[in-house]
Amino acid sequence: MLKKAYIPYQGYYSSPFVRWQGSLANENSIILGAKTSKRWLNFKKIDPNTFDYLILGITVGQPALFYGSPWAAAMIGAQNIPGVLLTQACSTSTTGIFQAAVGIETETYNNVYVLMTDRCSNGPHTIWPNPKGPGGQVISENWVMDHFGRDPWAGKAMINTAENVAKEAGIKREECDLLTLRRCLQYQDALANDRDFQKKYMFGVEIALSKKKSVLIEKDEGIMETTEEGLQKLKPVIPEGVHTFGSQTHPADGNCALIVTTKKKADELSADKKINIRVVSYGHARAKKGFMAMAVVPAAQMALEKAGLNINDIKVIKTHNPFAVNDIYMANMLNIDPNKFNNYGSSLIFGHPQAPTAGRLIIEGIEETVMLGGGYMLFTGCAAGDTGAAIIIKVT
User: Fold this and answer.
1) Which pLDDT tens digit goes with each residue over 260-305?
2) How far, CA to CA in Å, does 168 sit from each of 135, 172, 240, 317, 325?
3) Closest-CA residue to 46 (of 217, 259, 362, 204)
4) Which numeric CATH code is attached to 158-195+275-395?
5) Which of 111, 195, 335, 368 is the most buried (most CB within 10 A)?
6) What angle do CA 351, 352, 354 make, to 5 degrees?
7) How does strand 314-320 pair with strand 375-383?
């Protein structure tokens, strides 16, 4: 259990998430994340030189990635601090926050800026020399599509791992459709009252159209209108499978950031000094080969055990749910109602830009917990390679 690492209330933001090949498709995600962070820090009147370390979470290669963290630090205005590049598929945010918290706990760092950014759009094509290939042909890989389409260890696409879990757990197509509809309605709650909930944390991204003209993107883009009838008409992605393109997520682009620091500094930077947000524990897991959606459960159980809690102690639950089966399986295993978690949104609906996905969900979970008067918030989610990570945060 961690005791010293805090997040200032509203010491975080998430950009809107934009469906891939949309408005953010041509932006270097490192530059966009850093520029958005610089604008946000200026808006919050936080001096970038407050930070002594920067953790950059990113999973899709961008030009100059080799210099990613110190480059991003310099771009936000913290030219003299070091940092590290962290990549763990969709667990990147969870692990990045935890690593920052461990640094605070051990007094290795004082104030950490955790920036997560990714662009699934226009993913890079990596090429390696192949001297033994016929005619010197190269070995090539589409960074995004090939990774979605094949786990080199399990040998199958990510959708196959979800279908494996559905088949073994006896989860039906109808359950996935109904849960997807419920998740859509929960997302609509975040749009009520002129997006009152989202405006608590969402910060727009500025895109230059020319030297003299720019556009500010302030809302999620690419959310699909969903109805029960529409879901029923969709064909399974895999013949006889339970998931359609409606009950799985879509790739997206975006960024988010959180400040992880000491109690004293969190109080100083907090938008409300009466609210304390502490990082409590972390869990990690690896499911059996080809069953990625299962990893959310042992990761959550580990985080609960480390915190000395059980699932009934948790007030707010958020998950990264790239497939509807993730939440149904977890609810069955933990004996909880799948309709009562992931309020105000989930990655199943607003998309999946990988590195910042969990970060946005954690931020939303914090805001919901504050609205409910405090308590424990659990986030858990799967990641590539049949892995998962979870984190528990306490709001008082």
Assistant:
1) 999 999 999 999 999 999 999 999 999 999 999 999 999 999 999 9
2) 46, 11, 14, 25, 11
3) 259
4) 3.40.47.10
5) 368
6) 165
7) parallel
